[in-house]
Specification:
Blueprint: H1 18-61, E1 69-77, E2 87-92, E3 98-103, E4 107-112, E5 118-123, E6 132-137, E7 144-149, E8 153-164, E9 171-177, E10 185-186, E11 194-202, E12 205-212, E13 217-226, E14 233-242, E15 251-256, E16 262-267, E17 271-276, E18 284-290, E19 296-301, E20 307-312, E21 317-324, E22 330-338, E23 345-350, E24 356-361, E25 365-370, E26 375-381, E27 387-392, E28 398-403, E29 407-414, H2 422-426, E30 441-442, E31 453-454, H3 457-488, H4 491-503, H5 509-526, H6 528-550, H7 554-557, H8 570-591, H9 596-602, H10 612-636, H11 640-648, H12 653-682, H13 685-690, H14 708-715, H15 724-758
Antiparallel strand pairs: 1-29, 2-3, 3-4, 4-5, 6-7, 7-8, 8-9, 8-10, 11-12, 12-13, 13-14, 15-16, 16-17, 17-18, 19-20, 20-21, 21-22, 23-24, 24-25, 25-26, 27-28, 28-29, 30-31
């Protein structure tokens, strides 16, 4: 038999010759190589982009991990500042240019912080023959310094800095003013020396506390009034005696809070005492507690006067809170112990606007600590002699250190983000004003004395809570719908249903959030019984309709084409939903005294209008198309020979679904669920508009939450760039990205194992 060769119109062969086949193979090989390298490059680009996102987020978060550092810039003798005595108190103003030295003789010398050159000087007034006996100061932001004298008198001074801009150059003019007048006020009518004094500016005026040399305790409250015509300031006030310390203890330190309601005293017997002085007619000693850390050698209120920093002769440094008990009585509670110093604590300098403080000891070591985050930021030797005074600037950028040798050191400080630590972000923290440790997110407020609370636990749990209830709503409907659509529904009906559900994914989530917050949330609140009625009656109705359909004559049932049975349920579903909603007010009257919401409240179940139920339904509605589309494709692509073989062996269609279709399609269904979960975790607009945005820790379906993504969207536009709050929001974004990355990685591992397991089918 002769070989037949295809020929063209001119009789030539159409088959490629050897040279042409070689060229085609080379072209194909080049295309394969290009495709392989193209796909690999695209994959690496995706991985690289993801890595760059991680790198950028981490670069914004990394400064949070850095500890404080202090570097000495200049040293000079305090004698070149003033020759009138050693400083009893040092102050550095906010522009870090001018320092102030308060001496025992009542001299106040302003000087250049950089080189120690003297500027202006003041002499605190005193009565003739009176000698200095004590000095006390309030919280740094007020700049108050009280001088006590040996005749029972006291003078209150205050630092003030005037700003002017001659020739467009900033000029700072320091001065000393006297809020209660230049005339000394009498604290002790018996004219005994004031051994210890304390001062605090309150909302009503000024509060002054003093301990006399014979152990008596005095508390004065003063107010001032300025004549609008003459400008003359008149001072009025009263001094009351407090109960004496028990066991003949001697006062070492006194501290007053900003409300002049609580007086804290450290004695010479290693004890702390708290007095309730809110009512001048009923002042009393509330509590006496042992420090259990040695003799108190330094005691200072932190900003806001809600907590105390305590240092002892053993070098221990601790923070104590004023905690209100169930009887509305304030007590002293030690909450944090920090890394101790090698020597006895000599001085504590609190920061102006944060819960941080600096501590010096008698061996020249400086420690920097932060209360809320419980961080020891630095412990570093700074001088050869004992540190006697520390002064930090209001912006925490420069530090003055005075030691026992008379040297004044000027140091730069880097301490930008002490407010957060692992414990403050992920563990319970005992905040000021709270009765116990809690998880709280409240990063900002209107006042400078606010204590930032930046726990990521409420946000992380809120994210998981929102995703959980959304998946609880979406998974059964999405997967069940996918199974029925792919396996039981006719192609024509599937061609209508599948695109209709998939097009739901194109709905803007801001519209869904808008509808959920403004329509769905009030509707559910007013029809709570309908929610539970639908959950109960809808499945029962479907079973009853199916049972009734199966009992109809065969002649009627055959009129409905196979695969169109779902259309029969449309009207019963609508009627059942309408019936449950219409019955809801009557159910509330019959069983819940007219209000199911109030019934929940009476039984201790809080109900917020915008809650997890609303979010679960709205976000579930947004997630269903993702789960449905992927799962439906997975079920539809199950090989026909598997299902037909199962049916041929006698299995019913439902047995085939459970035993063959679901296992075979399980990798795709699992991928659908994880894709839906990823969508729910990262959703922003729905949870932003429908949750109430309350960062609380609970899994109550009737209470709201705040998610990581919603928190970033709400707070990032309002925070200062490069601030601690700003970087913590980036940390929240990093946590969110890491969460989705870990979940997706684990999901892919499980999917591959499922695929390998059922690939032999």
């Amino acid at each position: 038999m002769s070989e037949i060769t295809p020929a063209g119109a001119g009789g030539e062969s159409l088959m490629p010759n050897a040279e042409q086949r070689a060229r085609l193979r080379n072209i194909r090989r080049l295309k394969d190589k290009f495709s392989r390298w193209g796909v690999a490059s695209a994959g690496l680009a995706v991985v690289g982009a993801l890595g760059l996102i991680f790198f950028y987020l981490f670069s914004e978060v990394a400064p949070l991990l850095k500890s404080a550092d202090v570097e000495v810039l200049e040293r000079y003798d305090h004698s070149q500042v003033t020759a009138l005595g050693d400083p009893e108190h040092l102050v550095l103003e906010r522009y870090e240019q001018i320092g102030a030295s308060f001496t025992a003789g009542g001299d106040v010398q302003f000087f250049s912080a950089d080189n120690g050159s003297a500027l202006s000087a003041y002499q605190v007034p005193r009565s003739e023959g009176a000698q200095f006996s004590s000095l006390g100061f309030g919280t740094p932001v007020d700049g108050l310094v009280a001088y006590g004298y040996d005749n029972g008198q006291l003078v209150l001074s205050q630092l003030n800095y005037k700003l002017s801009y001659p020739n467009d150059t900033r000029k700072i003019t320091p001065e000393l003013v006297y809020p209660l007048g230049e005339e000394p006020i009498v604290m002790d009518s018996e004219a005994r020396a004031l051994a210890t004094v304390a001062v605090q500016k309150t909302a009503r005026g000024y509060a002054l506390a003093a301990a006399t040399e014979d152990g008596r305790l005095l508390l004065g409250r003063y107010t001032t009034r300025e004549n609008m015509i003459t400008g003359k300031v008149t001072t009025s006030g009263r001094v009351d005696a407090l109960p004496a310390l028990p066991n003949d203890a001697k006062v070492r330190f006194i501290q007053l809070d900003k409300t002049a309601s609580h007086l804290v005293i450290a004695d010479n017997q290693e004890r702390l005492h708290i007095y309730d002085v809110a009512d001048a007619t009923a002042m009393s000693l509330t509590e006496t507690v042992a420090t259990e850390r040695g003799q108190v050698t330094a005691l200072q209120y932190l900003v806001g006067t809600g907590s105390l920093a305590v240092g002892t002769n053993q070098g221990s440094v601790s923070q104590w809170l004023l905690v209100r008990d169930p009887q509305n009585t304030y007590r002293l509670q030690p909450v944090r112990d920090f890394e101790p110093l090698p020597g006895a604590v000599t001085t504590i300098s609190p920061e102006y606007a944060r819960r941080g403080f600096l501590v010096g000891d008698d061996q020249g070591t400086v420690g920097i600590y932060y209360g809320t985050s419980s961080r020891t930021l630095m412990v570093k030797p700074m001088t050869d002699g004992a540190i006697e005074q520390l002064a930090i600037s209001p912006i925490n950028g420069k530090l003055l250190i005075y030691d026992a040798s008379g040297q004044l050191s000027v140091a730069s400080v880097w301490n930008q983000h002490p407010e957060v630590s692992f414990s403050s972000l992920w563990q319970k923290v005992w905040y000021e004003g709270r009765s116990e440790p809690e998880y709280v997110w409240q990063a900002s407020s209107g006042g400078d004395e606010f204590e930032s609370k930046m726990s990521l636990v409420p946000l992380s749990l809120g994210t998981l809570k929102a995703a959980f209830f959304a998946m609880l709503f979406a998974i059964p409907l999405g997967i069940a719908g996918a199974l029925y659509t792919a396996y039981f529904m006719t192609p024509k009906m599937r061609g209508l249903v599948k695109p209709s559900i998939e097009i739901m994914e194109a709905l803007p989530t801001v519209i869904l959030g808008f509808l959920a917050g403004l329509w769905l949330a009030p509707f559910l609140e007013n029809h709570l019984p309908a929610v539970f009625s639908i959950l109960i009656f809808m499945p029962i109705m479907m079973v009853l309709v199916g049972f009734a359909w199966s009992r109809l004559p065969q002649s009627i049932r055959v009129r409905a084409p196979e695969g169109w049975e779902a259309a029969i349920l449309v009207v019963p579903i609508l009627l059942t939903g309408w019936f449950c909603i219409a019955l809801s007010p009557h159910v509330e009257v019959w069983f819940f005294s007219g209000s199911m919401r109030q019934w929940f409240t009476d039984y201790g179940i809080n109900y917020d209008q915008r809650n997890a139920l609303v979010v679960g339904m709205a976000m579930g509605f947004a997630v269903i198309p993702t789960i449905f589309s992927i799962a439906e494709d997975a079920v539809f692509n199950v090989p026909r020979h598997l299902t037909q073989g199962s049916l041929a062996l006698g299995a019913t269609r439902w047995q085939t679904v459970v035993g063959v279709v679901l296992p075979t399609a399980s990798p795709g269904i699992f991928s659908a669920v994880m894709m839906g979960f990823g969508r729910a975790v990262g959703e922003t607009m729905i949870v932003l508009m429908a949750t109430g945005n309350s960062p609380v820790v609970n899994f109550n379906i009737f209470e709201g939450m705040r998610t990581l993504s919603a928190n970033i969207a709400v707070e990032l536009p309002e925070t200062a760039v490069a601030s601690t709050h700003f970087r913590v929001l980036f940390l929240a974004a990093l946590v969110l990205l890491a969460l989705t990355f870990i979940v997706n990685t684990c999901a892919e591992i499980i999917r591959q194992r499922l695929r390998k397991r059922y690939s032999n089918l």
